[in-house]
Structure formats: structure tokens, C-alpha cells
Amino acid sequence: MGRKSAKGKERKLRRKEENEITEHLWKLVAEANKIDDPLAPLVSFQKYNKNGLNLTISCHKRESVEEDILLWALNLTKSNMESLYEESGWGWKDRDKLQEMKDDNARYLIVKNEDEKPVAFIHFRFDLDYGQPVVYCYEIQLESEVRNKGLGFFLMQILQLFAIKNSLFKVSATILRINDKSMDFFMRKLKFTEDETSPDDECYMIVSKLARVKT
Ligand SMILES: CC(C)(COP(=O)(O)OP(=O)(O)OC[C@H]1O[C@@H](n2cnc3c(N)ncnc32)[C@H](O)[C@@H]1OP(=O)(O)O)[C@@H](O)C(=O)NCCC(=O)NCCS
């Protein structure tokens, strides 16, 4: 009897601790979500003037992204990804992708050229993923004329900084296994690794990189 009740107490205490930890981790996500523009203090990351590009980068909550920019982002994603989605078995539906892009928690990095024309974007969210507070990269899409000039790398560095500044554990992303260029970009160039939550038997992989400040 005595042992049983001691065990019960232990379980209760453990549950309490677990709840407190979850609450703390949710708080980190909630605090990050309160920030209107996390790019504002990172002045040197608001421009990309390299390799012949002269671009400006801005950060927006979903509700402040104009409808025509959102439609451009949908069409760019479609032209870059539709055949890969079809080939992998996911299939492509404009409506589903638009719904994902219009989620209340969606945030955007939007890159424009000197003519104010959008040329690249990232859709990301501050979220709790399998119990861990993360910056989740839902989409990174570049127009073909700005690819292979280091811009994708630069934009992903911004997400790493958002994670570090907000004490979130890592940056995560989902990539299709058949998307060779993206696999090379994330695994070789960015040094992401397959996440512990990534499934073995799916057409996609979850990859992540810990948000650690270099010492
Ligand atoms: C994948 C993508 C985001 C990379 O951004 P980027 O600005 O072109 O990449 P960077 O210039 O920063 O880095 C280039 C690296 O990406 C990879 N890469 C990009 N394009 C590639 C290509 N055509 N062939 C092979 N590797 C490629 C390589 O690892 C390359 O490394 P290297 O410079 O050492 O050769 C961009 O090419 C893109 O938008 N592609 C189409 C959409 C897409 O697949 N998005 C990813 C969905 S998960």
C-alpha cells in the first residue's frame, strides 16, 4: 500500500513537471508570435546585394501580405513544385496550398528587386513541433533568375537567427525525397540533418538544424 501511494505521488509529480515544461515551451512560441516584425532589428539582413543581385527583404504576418503577392507566391510554388508533388504522390491542389499559405500563423519573408517585383519568398511559422519550439520553414521558393546566387542560403540564415533570438530549439523543414536540388541545398549546403521525427517510409523527409549560438 505504502509503496503504491509513493509511486502515485511520483507519477503525479512527473506529470506536473511535464505540464510545466510544455507550458514553458508554448510560452516561448507565444512570445515569438507576439513580435510583429522579427526582421526589424536585423538591419543587415534587409538587403541582399551580392552576385549581381540588388534585392530588399521584408518580413510580414500573413494578414499584411497583399493578395496579389500571395497569388504570385502560389503561382511560383506551383510552377516550381507541381510536377514533383504529382510524381511523389502528394498531388497538387491550388485550393489546399492557398489554404496552407493563408493560415493565421503563417509569416513571410518577401524578397523584391529594384523594380519592386517579388522574386523570392519564405513561408515560415513559429510553432511547437512534436513538443519542441521551432521555426518551421513551410516553403522556400525562388524565381529561376535569382537562384544559385547564395540568396536561398542567406534567407535560411535569417530563420536561424529568428530561432536563436527567440530561444527556439531549431529550424525545421519538410522536403520531398525526389527533389534532388532541395536535398542538396538543405543537407549539403545548409548542413541540416534528418530530424528524429522524420518518417522512414514516406516520400518526404523532415530535416532540421539546431539553433545554437557559435562560441
Ligand atoms: C532550392 C533553392 C531554395 C536554393 O536556393 P538558391 O538561392 O538557389 O541556393 P544557394 O545559391 O543559396 O545555394 C546553392 C546550393 O543549392 C543547391 N542547388 C541549388 N540549385 C541547384 C541545382 N540546380 N543543382 C544542384 N544543386 C543545386 C546546391 O547545394 C548549391 O550549392 P553550391 O552553391 O555549393 O553549388 C532554390 O534553388 C529554389 O527556389 N528552387 C526551386 C524551389 C524548390 O525546390 N524549393 C525547395 C522546396 S523544399
Task: Please provide a brief summary of the model.
The chain is α+β, with helices and mostly antiparallel strands and 215 residues long.
Spatial separation of the terminal alpha carbons: 52 Å
What share of the residues does DSSP label as strand, in percent? 25-35%
Shape: globular
Total count of helical runs of at least 4 residues? 5
Which residues form runs of ≥5 with pLDDT under 50? none
Strand order of the largest sheet: 1-2-3-4-5-6-8-7
In CATH, what is the class? Answer: Alpha Beta
Architecture, CATH level 2? 3-Layer(aba) Sandwich
Q: Supply the CATH superfamily name.
A: Gcn5-related N-acetyltransferase (GNAT)
Could you say which structural class the secondary elements and strand pairing correspond to? alpha+beta
Which fold name fills CATH's third level, the topology?
Aminopeptidase
Number of strands: 8
Write the element-wise H/E pattern from the N-terminal end onward. Answer: HEEHHEEEHEHEE
C-alpha Rg (nearest Å): 20 Å
Tally of individual domains: 1
Helix content: 40-55%
**What composes the largest sheet?**
8 strands, mixed
Q: Care to describe what's here?
A:
The protein has 215 residues and is α+β, with helices and mostly antiparallel strands. The protein has a single domain, classed as Aminopeptidase, CATH 3.40.630. It contains 5 helices and 8 strands; from the N terminus they run H-E-E-H-H-E-E-E-H-E-H-E-E. The mean pLDDT is 95.
